[in-house]
Write a structure and sequence with these properties.
Length: 297
């Protein structure tokens, strides 16, 4: 794909013409027989130029695409994932970000939530090994489909849908190196969300717990919010989220559970509920946590 072709696609998108983009997606799909070509396209397009020009077209400060046009982009991107030879797209965090943003602008977040039902087991596995760029949060408020600031319940609802997509497709990979932040990010997931002005501190404190409790198969989201609330000294709101995260995390996730119990222990200590804290403390391998922190530092 020559730079002039990309520039042509960008120019046409800026004039609300999505057809050159759709034509480019057809060319990518036609190259599915060559893994080398897929790798080249992914590296050269979805790690920068194509993502940026599409995000610019979706940005309401520029010439915004309509929901229908964004839907055509969303369908074209999703179509690439249907090919069993598409080994590289689902692993690409920029591609996944664009996939999410296009569905948001098209008003189709629910379709992306349910997308795994339309995929083969192999494709679901490929997608779940990927991540999504933390830059997604800074771009979401720029979408013309993003609710106004005087509609906090709608913004919380949209945030819940985005989080459901991220956690359902396993685009948030937990590790002791970045406990409650997205891969490639060094701050808590919800600090990043607030910093991007998706929602405010106050809105998240008030509505966040109910929002994450509604998420399916997302105990890690509850732990992320519990950690954020704990840092805000909202201990009474953090406690039930720690307990819910612990209850819904599989027993074989021992390291994860160790950190969740550690979070609950510190929350109870901060609330002067020392007897309960001591019972939780018995479930915590503090030596392991300290060892991990020494290794990271």
């Amino acid at each position: 794909i020559q730079p002039l072709v990309l520039q042509h696609v960008a120019n046409r998108l800026s004039e609300n013409d999505v057809q050159p983009f759709l034509d480019l997606m057809e060319k990518l799909a036609a190259a599915s027989s060559s893994r080398r070509h897929y790798h080249y396209y992914t590296g050269s397009l979805f790690h920068g130029p194509l993502v940026e020009l599409c995000c610019k077209a979706l940005d309401r400060e520029n010439v915004s695409l309509t929901a229908g046009q964004a839907g055509e982009i969303a369908d074209a991107l999703f179509g690439l994932l249907q090919d069993e030879d598409s080994h590289f797209y689902g692993h690409n965090r920029e591609f996944n970000m664009l996939l999410l943003l296009a569905h948001l602008q098209a008003g189709r977040l629910e379709k992306l939530i349910d997308a795994s039902n339309e995929m083969s087991v192999e494709m679901r596995g490929k997608l779940s090994r990927g991540v999504v760029s933390p830059d997604v949060w800074a771009k979401i408020p720029k979408m013309s489909a993003f609710p106004a600031k005087d509609a906090p319940e709608q913004r919380i609802g949209l945030l819940g849908d985005v989080l459901q997509i991220i956690f359902k497709h396993e685009w948030f990979h937990w590790s002791t190196g970045h406990l409650y932040g997205m891969c490639g990010d060094d701050i808590n997931l919800f600090d990043r969300i607030v910093k991007a002005e998706v929602v405010s501190d106050e809105e998240l404190i008030e509505h966040g717990p109910a929002m994450v409790e509604k998420l399916e198969d997302a105990p890690l989201a509850k732990a992320c919010l519990a950690s954020w609330l704990q840092a805000k000294k909202e201990f009474a709101k953090a406690e039930p989220l720690w307990r819910s995260a612990i209850a819904k995390t599989p027993a074989d996730k021992k390291t994860m559970l160790n950190y969740y119990n550690w979070g609950l222990y510190n929350t109870l200590e901060a609330m002067d509920r020392r007897d309960e804290a001591e019972e939780v403390r018995k479930q915590v391998d503090i030596d392991s946590i300290e060892k991990q922190h020494r290794h990271i530092n």
